[in-house]
């Protein structure tokens, strides 16, 4: 039945509608493909075959259509595909589509055959398709050839060993020889592998041809990355083929714009492939070579346009503004060559080594005669203006001289330690000195006449031992070191109390000074002050007076000032320090006691706790105000020992009516929570009570609780005093006694 | 497949095919006719334009190609990791995610942020243009070639007709960096479709003026490519490919380097690059 054009138009419209359906929902694919197959077969008109083959290619490539279903459907279409391919007519578009479809079908059918060895017919079809494509490959037109390359790549991919991602789930592994059972009835591993190896050679042969065609080369290049990435066994072969491919070499004929486009595209694509491989596998053994090849490609690309421009002759005027600048720089880059006179024979001095001028007047000039500030004025601008290349030349000249001298000396029998030569950096000094060589060479050699022979031989240079430090110098250096550590405490670079920030309490497993934060440095300092020099400085101390401050005292002094600078914030530092002092005092006393048993002599121990705690208190008490009560009580509670002098200092706070409360509350705290210091504090509080009238309300309240008898006695005294002055007013303590709930106090109040 | 099969010559009678399968319910959908031109020159290459953010250069080209007197099927992408638009200073760009932020959202946000600034630097105009072209910027690396794009047709994206199959014949990038990224990404995708694609780069500086010039140049390149492809289709018509001679027998693919070379001579300030890769 003849078919009119109109009918074809209608049919294609219907087919397009069907295609739109499957694009919308891939579930319709099996139904539509099976329905379409009879319409687009080998007997159909070319328009329908074109449509049909493209539809098949699209179907089996579609990411929306599940692989398992594709596999099922694939065997249904093999016969149609084969018969269209074998048509003598050979429509280019149909062939292009067929080869594309075959490239997608091949892995699907291969997998199907692995699992269904009994389906000999499907294997026969796909084998026939494969062989037909491979046989006609070279005779196809370019668009079809391109697709043949891709088809061959698919076949190679399938017929080599791939990675087994998960042996337990074969359906997840990609299709490759690795999943073919060894005893498969149809698929013979060795012959499949041999075929793929031959195919790979055929794919790569495009790089060896004399006139490489950019279409085929680029099409090949762009499908190699996948092979290299997923097929270890053949990757090196492919990479070495790439490394031997230089597109520019293939373009000898007249360089037309088309050739330039082609060469550039092949170069850039080669580069893209190599970069893709290197990015995926930076540890590939051939990375260095690939890198090299990329550079070579870029080089050849630079040369290529050069060639064409040379033929056209130089442009008459600079094509851009930078040109003149470039030329100017070129001129500047060839400085006059500096003449280097040879060294005199025999032994030479440093002065001779560095002297590059032949002017005897200049070389004998002693720079030391000039004042230093004048020299600085001369040398600094000189250095700023010295020409870099001249400087390099001069440095090289001196280096050469040095090396030849060294060689000469190696020839002479001289016991020179070779390793020390390596450590010694010969370039360093010449770099600094070279330009100012005439200035400094003289002084250097003049300064050390005694060691001249050694210097001249240029053997290993040993720094002279520094003179021993005097005690003052050592102390000075020590203070410097301490000042530096304190400087660090003040700076913000040391992290602040990181442990606190973490909210993690280390408890008893804490190791002092192990966190390297600010606290750690404080710990280090306090221990340095208290423990490090103990035993070392106790000896001379009794005989000498306090004339010379010792290093530990220097640290203490600095610590003292450091704390006073901000005693509210650094009270913890003070507590830590005083605890260390107290502990050290105990250790010292114990040590002294054990020593005394031997020679039965009075050994005095310098105690540091008492004087420093008082000094610190004296230091900050004047600045303490009533709001500092928490800090002050913390201090008092955490220092290791409260002594009578300390209690006196606390009592002195009561002088200030504003701080009476601070004083009394501090005492109250100590009385309640520091039993060893209770009596001392009660005594001091009594004194406060007696001395300062303002304290009586609060102090009386504390005393009533802890020393009821004494308070009665004191109050009796007070009453008599009050009576004697004939004041009609109530005694001062009456204001509070009424409100007190303590039965004892209440009783006292009533008794008044 | 989105292109129209040629309808030339009723010519020789092939054997009558069996009746087509019963068209499914949706068979008569209006877009069934979209790819039918009835003329052989209705054949259209499908294009894809790519720049860094899918905002300026690729969108200008997208607009040009999709609104040409004979419009091309076109989709567009960006290769950057994020969509970056200029902000109040060079260090404060406005950054958006690909695929999930529409041009309209960006427009509204920048409009409310500082209308004057973004009006003056042309960002609002650009976004306004873009939102009339398609919904939002798409990232090239997230594109799955071959995945149907029917929804883009229904959304009314410009140039969506003909790209329902999610494949293109030509990719045009606007910067070498993007060309590198596209070629590299196509290799990483392992070319599951086994389908060749021409990848061009046309180097365009990223500003509004250059984008206009570049868009014009890209349209020129696309027209030249398409004209050649149409010639090929014609040559392959009723007479059959075997009957052509000489120049006529050379395929479209073969001629691409020449087309690019002659195009380059006309546009010497937009250095071009090309390769043939796989989708």
Automatic annotation (TrEMBL), chain A:
> Pfam families attached here?
SYMPK_PTA1_N
Keywords assigned by UniProt, alphabetized: mRNA processing, Nucleus
Q: Where is this region: Disordered?
A: 435-455, 725-752
First-listed, main subcellular location of the protein, grouped into a coarse class: nucleus
Renumbered to this chain, the Polar residues biased-composition regions fall at 725-738
Q: Does the keyword Nucleus apply?
A: yes
Per its UniProt record, what InterPro entries does this chain match? Answer: ARM-like, Symplekin/Pta1, Symplekin/Pta1_N
Q: Does the UniProt entry include the keyword Nucleus?
A: yes
Q: Where is this protein found?
A: Nucleus
- The UniProt record lists the Symplekin/Pta1 N-terminal domain at 92-311
PANTHER family per UniProt: SYMPLEKIN, SYMPLEKIN-RELATED
Task: List the protein's name.
Answer: Symplekin/Pta1 N-terminal domain-containing protein
Source organism (scientific name): Aspergillus pseudoustus
Its organism's taxonomic lineage begins at:
Eukaryota, Fungi, Dikarya, Ascomycota, Pezizomycotina
Automatic annotation (TrEMBL), chain B:
Subcellular location field: Nucleus
Supply the Pfam families for this chain. Ssu72
InterPro entries in alphabetical order = RNA_pol_II_suA (IPR006811)
Q: What is its main location?
A: nucleus
Q: What is its EC number?
A: 3.1.3.16
Region annotation Disordered: where it falls in the sequence: 1-38
Keyword annotations for this protein, in alphabetical order, are: Hydrolase, mRNA processing, Nucleus, Protein phosphatase
The main enzyme category here is hydrolase
The answer, when asked if Nucleus is one of the entry's keywords, is: yes
| Catalytic activity of the protein | O-phospho-L-seryl-[protein] + H2O = L-seryl-[protein] + phosphate; O-phospho-L-threonyl-[protein] + H2O = L-threonyl-[protein] + phosphate
Query: Belongs to which family?
Result: Belongs to the SSU72 phosphatase family.
What is the role of the protein in this entry?
Component of the cleavage and polyadenylation factor (CPF) complex, which plays a key role in polyadenylation-dependent pre-mRNA 3'-end formation and cooperates with cleavage factors including the CFIA complex and NAB4/CFIB. SSU72 is required for 3'-end formation of snoRNAs.
On subunit structure and binding partners, the annotation says: Component of the cleavage and polyadenylation factor (CPF) complex.
* Name the record gives this protein: RNA polymerase II subunit A C-terminal domain phosphatase SSU72
Question: What organism does the record attribute this protein to?
Answer: Aspergillus pseudoustus
- Higher taxonomy: Eukaryota, Fungi, Dikarya, Ascomycota, Pezizomycotina
